[in-house]
Amino acid sequence: MTEKQFNVGIVGYGLSAKVFHIPFIQLTPSLKLHSIVQRTPKPGNSAPEDYPDLKHYTATEDLIADPDVDVVVLCTPPNTHYPLTRSALLNNKHVLVEKPFVPTSGEADELTALARQQKRVLCVYQNRRWDSDFLTVQNLLKEDKLGRIVEFETHFDRLRLTALAKGSTWKAGLKMDEAGGVLYDLGSHLLDQVFVLFGMPDGVTGRFVNQREGRLVTGDGTDEQEPDSVTAILSYKNKGLLVFVRAGVACVETRQMRFWVRGTKGSYHKSGLDPQEDHLRAGGKATDTDFGKESEDRFGRLCIVGGDGKVEDQVCPTVEPETYVRFYHLFAKAVASGKEEGVPVPASQAAQVLRIIEAVRESAKTGSEVTPQA
């Protein structure tokens, strides 16, 4: 019996579509790249030139209304995600939305309910759940190599002392109220991974900084109070666990910290980012034999308490990557089944992560620990 193919329409033709979605759609047997929306194709950056056999649109509403499109993938700025997702669902499309999902948890809840009403799959592209370093951390915790976890640090630090020019990209223009800025862009990745590991925290403390100018800021919605860096502390009272989430632009390191996990039996220290994004940006393909694989010099360090009570320091190999191919495989299966429980990153989970983000913002404004809304 031939596997049913679902026609996929892509909205947006920037880096996200070209690097993170189209190559993986083409590797997924049950998905067929059908159409692309690009508002203003130009020579050298033209979806019609790159994919002459596909259907092409310059208006999103035309693709959403196309009865031949089964799945809509939104690769647009986050301030457009709510209305476009709502429209696609009302037109009976399955929807995959780039992160950050939407500006508020209330909007996420509404879209979750609408997807259920329409009996359509709604998924958020939190691809870093399939980073090999994160999968290594998951394995260490699952196998109880580190004992009871007492502190967990997760970082996305860089040396970026010059801000993006206004208008050069949506990331340079959107504020937090529009799901822009470091907390929604990078923080949503880090907080999503923490949510996967530990669930909802009992308390959240957040601090915002403009590291480029050397100012603490509140993130109150004005331009001068927008942060370029964030630190959040998540407390899990019943676990006796503190989680530190950090993303900054003034970190001078040859190898940037990624994870530092401390437990009663051991600790894990990892530097550097998962290599998949760099591989793809450099023109590599997910079918390359070395795709997603780390070289030994990038492996993390594992310290464990030996049988004699002494601490042993050893190399901790990064697990063989499942890669972002796995995400699309799971997403395609969910589309075929139509069942929410099969969705790799359900909108309902993205809503929970948004509640943590909202608690970070509230704490940064008030200076107090905040309990995330249920």
Automatic annotation (TrEMBL):
<dbReference type="InterPro" id="IPR004104">
    <property type="entry name" value="Gfo/Idh/MocA-like_OxRdtase_C"/>
</dbReference>
<feature type="domain" description="Gfo/Idh/MocA-like oxidoreductase N-terminal">
    <location>
        <begin position="6"/>
        <end position="125"/>
    </location>
</feature>
<feature type="domain" description="Gfo/Idh/MocA-like oxidoreductase C-terminal">
    <location>
        <begin position="140"/>
        <end position="370"/>
    </location>
</feature>
<feature type="compositionally biased region" description="Basic and acidic residues">
    <location>
        <begin position="276"/>
        <end position="293"/>
    </location>
</feature>
<dbReference type="InterPro" id="IPR036291">
    <property type="entry name" value="NAD(P)-bd_dom_sf"/>
</dbReference>
<protein>
    <recommendedName>
        <fullName>Oxidoreductase</fullName>
    </recommendedName>
</protein>
<dbReference type="InterPro" id="IPR000683">
    <property type="entry name" value="Gfo/Idh/MocA-like_OxRdtase_N"/>
</dbReference>
<feature type="region of interest" description="Disordered">
    <location>
        <begin position="271"/>
        <end position="293"/>
    </location>
</feature>
<dbReference type="InterPro" id="IPR051317">
    <property type="entry name" value="Gfo/Idh/MocA_oxidoreduct"/>
</dbReference>
<keyword id="KW-0560">Oxidoreductase</keyword>
<comment type="similarity">
    <text>Belongs to the Gfo/Idh/MocA family.</text>
</comment>
<dbReference type="Pfam" id="PF02894">
    <property type="entry name" value="GFO_IDH_MocA_C"/>
</dbReference>
<dbReference type="Pfam" id="PF01408">
    <property type="entry name" value="GFO_IDH_MocA"/>
</dbReference>
